[in-house]
């Protein structure tokens, strides 16, 4: 009974503090969006919708706040909260955050659409997916990895809200959820071990990211870069199970790294 | 509350920070944890507060393992000289968090202490002076009213009037809401009157755990004519001696019997107690120039 109360308190606090940062992030993007529209002279089809701007920028944002989230661990332990409650609370807050950001983005975008009509449309983001498939022109492994990471950050698997807003939100949520989780995993490895281990886990995160991209793109029938052709024979359910397994792996690693970690003083 | 350590061992790589520590403390008393720099005080306290796990051995608090134990952890507050250089939260907000997670936190008392220490609640903590940050730590430590309150050199940077407020408030709190206080300190002479019991560790080993009165009664300073003093202390453990002309003063460790005490007085010697600070210095001192070490246990 008491335990339940503590982790839900942590979840609520983590959600509130991170949402307060998120409002700044979303607010700045909204200001940029308005400036873009003013500069573009409110021409028809002149500007990408707000949803798309958030869709691209949120990955890096979530990676950064994921990295920061480890610094709440000493704060909670000092306040008499167990590492387990910190983990559960932070994970729940992450789930909330991953849903809240796309929902807010789609609401603002819908509003934008209602006010401005055709000026903002969801039309050409589909190019993102086809461009992603063409990007891998490098034949060596390093080029593959670099192009894969760049593409994953700036051209993540995308579903337009026009085709299915539920799926659009789900894919968006999954993207940012993954980035936060990987940021958290990297910072947990640096916190517990040393720089070398931390760097290894950056590499591990990149692998998870690339595999997840391939699994998700293939399962959504999006254009897929050639390196992911091995996934094509698999049914969507298996591919999505693969994504779930990657999430579980990252979460288990974070928990293992933090479950008995010494608090730095 | 009861804290019991058995064969507690903590290693950092090859370095042994705590070397098979055994002790048991209980009750609502003020414990003084003494030891030189690097003796292992903070390591021991951080295990009690679940900041880290021991390498081997066991620690129990009220019979339970405290590590990751929600019921125990919320009852222990551990305040130390923390680096607040990147803490941009205000005192006001930090008090709110303590209130949220500490079941016995007394907000009114915290506000009263903030007033006594003259802290600006709206300033980010990193902008406060070191002494004021320490006063804030004391405030959290006392106002949390945790059944086990650990204050690890929490006075660092505090000026003498603030430290005086701290000691007075500590004693008043102990009267109003008795709990187990563990104070680790270097300011032995200034704080010794606070202690009910003393735990002394040196180089990771437990040197002694005694009731304060029993401990100080174990030492005596014998002052008087050089030859008479030398004769009197011949069979005693001497921990320090000073000489000025024909007068000699020798600090001895080991209880004097009533007969011995009367004998000394009859022989014109002066017998005075040894301050805890001196016992601490001599019990933990390094090997001297002659390679002899004060080995008393």
Automatic annotation (TrEMBL), chain A:
Keywords: Membrane, Transmembrane, Transmembrane helix. It comes from the Bacteria. The chain crosses the membrane at residues 21-42, 54-77, 89-111, 165-186, 193-211, 231-254. This is Uncharacterized protein. It comes from Compostibacillus humi. The lineage of its organism: Bacteria, Bacillati, Bacillota, Bacilli, Bacillales.
From TrEMBL, chain B:
PROSITE patterns: ABC_TRANSPORTER_2. The keyword Nucleotide-binding applies. Residues 3-228 form the ABC transporter domain. It comes from the Bacteria. InterPro entries: AAA+_ATPase, ABC_transporter-like_ATP-bd, P-loop_NTPase. GO terms for molecular function: ATP binding; ATP hydrolysis activity. Keywords: ATP-binding, Nucleotide-binding. The keyword Metal-binding does not apply. This is ABC transporter. It comes from Compostibacillus humi.
């Amino acid at each position: 009974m008491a335990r339940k109360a503590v982790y839900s308190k942590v979840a609520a606090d983590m959600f509130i503090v991170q949402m307060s940062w998120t409002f700044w992030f979303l607010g700045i993007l909204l200001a940029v969006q308005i400036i873009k529209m003013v500069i573009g002279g409110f021409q028809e089809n002149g500007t990408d919708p707000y949803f798309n701007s958030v869709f691209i920028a949120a990955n890096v944002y979530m990676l950064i706040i994921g990295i920061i989230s480890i610094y709440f661990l000493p704060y909670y332990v000092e306040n008499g909260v167990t590492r387990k409650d910190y983990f559960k609370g932070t994970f729940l807050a992450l789930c909330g955050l991953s849903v809240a950001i796309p929902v807010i983005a789609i609401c603002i975008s819908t509003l934008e659409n209602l006010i401005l009509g055709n000026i903002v449309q969801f039309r050409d983001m589909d190019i993102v997916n086809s461009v992603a498939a063409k990007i891998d022109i490098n034949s060596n492994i390093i080029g593959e990895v670099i192009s894969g990471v760049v593409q994953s950050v700036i051209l993540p698997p995308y579903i337009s809200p026009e085709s299915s807003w539920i799926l659009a939100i789900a894919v968006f949520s999954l993207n940012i959820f993954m980035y936060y989780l990987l940021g958290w995993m990297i910072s947990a490895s640096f916190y517990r071990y040393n720089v070398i281990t931390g760097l290894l886990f950056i590499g591990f995160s990149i692998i998870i990211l690339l595999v997840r991209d391939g699994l998700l793109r293939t399962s959504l029938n999006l254009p897929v870069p050639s390196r992911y052709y091995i996934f094509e024979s698999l049914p969507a359910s298996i591919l999505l199970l693969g994504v779930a397994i990657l999430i579980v792996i990252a979460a288990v690693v974070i928990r293992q790294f933090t479950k008995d970690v010494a608090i730095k003083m | 509350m009861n804290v019991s350590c058995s064969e507690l061992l903590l290693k950092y790589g090859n370095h042994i920070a705590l070397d098979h520590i055994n002790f048991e403390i209980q009750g609502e008393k003020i414990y003084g944890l003494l030891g030189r720099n690097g003796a292992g005080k903070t390591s021991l306290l951080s295990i009690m507060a679940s900041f880290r796990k021991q390498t081997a051995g066991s620690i129990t608090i009220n019979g339970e393992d405290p590590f990751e134990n929600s019921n125990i952890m919320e009852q222990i507050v551990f305040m130390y000289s923390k680096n607040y250089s990147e803490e941009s939260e205000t005192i006001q907000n930090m008090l709110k968090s303590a209130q949220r997670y500490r079941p016995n936190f007394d907000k009114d008392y915290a506000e009263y202490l903030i007033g006594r220490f003259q802290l600006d609640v709206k300033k980010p903590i990193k902008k406060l002076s070191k002494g004021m940050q320490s006063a804030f730590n004391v405030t959290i430590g006392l106002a949390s009213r945790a059944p086990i309150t650990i204050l690890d050199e929490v006075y660092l940077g505090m000026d003498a009037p603030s430290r005086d407020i701290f000691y007075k408030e500590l004693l008043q709190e102990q009267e109003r809401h008795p709990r187990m206080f563990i104070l680790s300190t270097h300011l032995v002479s200034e704080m010794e009157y606070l202690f009910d019991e003393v735990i002394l560790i040196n180089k990771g080993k437990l040197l002694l755990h005694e009731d304060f009165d029993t401990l100080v009664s174990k030492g005596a300073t014998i002052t008087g004519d050089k030859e008479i003093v030398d004769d009197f202390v011949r069979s005693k453990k001497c921990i320090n001696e000073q000489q000025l002309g024909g007068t000699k003063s020798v600090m001895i460790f080991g209880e004097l019997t009533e007969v011995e005490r009367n004998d000394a007085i009859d022989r014109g010697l002066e017998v005075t107690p040894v301050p805890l600070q001196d016992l601490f210095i001599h019990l933990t001192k390094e090997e001297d120039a002659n390679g002899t070490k004060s080995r008393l246990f």
